[in-house]
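Here we describe the complex-level prediction in full. Unlike the single-chain runs in Section 2.1, the two entities below were treated as one system.
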Amino acid sequence: GAVVSQHPSRVICKSGTSVKIECRSLDFQATTMFWYRQFPKQSLMLMATSNEGSKATYEQGVEKDKFLINHASLTLSTLTVTSAHPEDSSFYICSARDSGKSSYNEQFFGPGTRLTVL
Amino acid sequence: GNSVTQMEGPVTLSEEAFLTINCTYTATGYPSLFWYVQYPGEGLQLLLKATKADDKGSNKGFEATYRKETTSFHLEKGSVQVSDSAVYFCALTQSGTALIFGKGTTLSVSS
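The structure predicted for the assembly as a whole is:
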């Protein structure tokens, strides 16, 4: 149980295009999902907290107009990188918290999406 | 604010050696503590966790004890294997907020 999937696992796009990354909780409901970004050989940096049915909360320094987050259902959050540029190339990882275990702080991670912008 | 500090790597060991990766934290209240492992090219996998003081998390031969008095959650394994080579992240969260990660420690085990 507690599986989180991400799609696509790897994407290469041209500069200026937009890329959508999906994060799904497969066997549980998640009112809250998180999006992280990881640069090579570095730690995960939180980009935003995605809340089902409401606007995402972005961390300081993260452009909300560039990284659009939609959490339209209890099992799906999407991250759209708009007008991607080479500096957006990174490993994007989502996590989800099981809404059925409100007192438990564990989060479940997706396998990540490798974005390369040419 | 909350933060996690891990020992810097890389840590290079021979097979069957003893492993310790230090992790200390700063937080108000009582956070939950985690160790995650990331194998090359993959996402994070939960290795073990502890939700209150004096709890010991364990999995696959790895152990860590939640020490509130020293604000530490050091990862240990008595005998490492080549397959343990990966990056290890210490992390904390409070009240379901996003995880705060340490910088990660790369472990390389040779046969």
